[in-house]
């Protein structure tokens, strides 16, 4: 009976030692993870003020960029449509053998007639060349020959300097927007 008690005591001690070993291993691993997390937290807290300052700096840059964009929009009111009209006008000028010296466009507005909406832009076009070529250019704009886009132009005024071979043309372009 004494041997049984001794064996039972040894088994209990071994089981207790194994449980203590397992608990110690779990505690050691958790303590290591806790130390790593504390190190990461310290580094994050060290970096955080710099990131906050960087965020404010980036927000200031975004505000400045937005302001610059708004200023640019105000200085360059032409829309993509105006650029496409410019391309057509340049092509017509080339076809008519005139030199396009200056092209100024107003900011497009919309005009609705019934169910149809038109984009309306005013242009001032300065061209140079022979009188016949300039007249051909004006005629091509007025009749809509060579236009790639669904638009038409109304020539408001023409100022010709016959001696200098230059002409200033004021026109309004109506672009179809759909309805």
Supply the key terms:
Alpha-Beta Plaits; 179 residues; alpha+beta
Kindly describe this structure.
The chain contains three helices and five strands, in the order H-H-E-E-E-H-E-E. The chain is an alpha+beta fold and 179 residues long. It folds into two domains: 76 residues; 99 residues, Alpha-Beta Plaits (2-Layer Sandwich). Strands 1, 2, 3, 4 and 5 form a five-stranded antiparallel sheet that branches. About 3% of the residues have low confidence.
> How would you name the CATH homologous superfamily of the largest domain?
Ribosomal protein S6/Translation elongation factor EF1B
Q: Specify the helix fraction band.
A: 55-70%
Overall strand count:
5
How far the N terminus sits from the C terminus, by CA atoms, comes to 106 Å
Could you give a short account of the major beta sheet? 5 strands, antiparallel
Helices and strands, in order, run as HHEEEHEE
Radius of gyration in whole Å, from Cα?
40 Å
Question: Can you lay out the helices and strands and say which pair or pack?
Answer:
Elements: H1 2-75, H2 80-95, E1 99-105, E2 109-113, E3 116-128, H3 131-143, E4 151-161, E5 166-178
Antiparallel strand pairs: 1-3, 2-3, 3-5, 4-5
In short:
This protein has helices spanning 2-75, 80-95, 131-143, and strands at residues 99-105, 109-113, 116-128, 151-161, 166-178. The protein is α+β, with helices and mostly antiparallel strands and 179 residues long. The chain has two domains: 1-76; 80-178, 2-Layer Sandwich (Alpha-Beta Plaits), CATH 3.30.70.
């Amino acid at each position: 009976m004494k041997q049984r008690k001794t064996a039972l005591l040894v088994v209990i001690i071994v089981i207790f030692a194994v449980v203590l070993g397992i608990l110690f291993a779990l505690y050691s691993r958790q303590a290591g993870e806790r130390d790593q997390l504390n190190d990461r937290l310290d580094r994050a807290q060290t970096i955080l003020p710099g990131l906050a300052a960087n965020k404010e700096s980036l927000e200031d840059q975004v505000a400045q960029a937005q302001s610059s964009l708004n200023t640019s929009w105000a200085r360059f009111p032409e829309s993509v449509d105006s650029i496409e009209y410019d391309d057509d006008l340049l092509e017509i000028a080339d076809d008519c053998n005139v030199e396009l010296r200056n092209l100024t466009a107003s900011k497009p507005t919309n005009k609705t007639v019934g169910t149809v909406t038109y984009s309306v832009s005013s242009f001032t076009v300065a061209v140079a060349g022979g009188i016949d070529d300039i007249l051909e250019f004006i005629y091509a704009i007025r009749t809509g020959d060579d236009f790639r886009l669904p638009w038409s132009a109304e020539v408001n005024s023409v100022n010709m300097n016959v001696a200098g071979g230059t002409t200033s043309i004021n026109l309004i372009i109506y672009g179809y927007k759909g309805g």
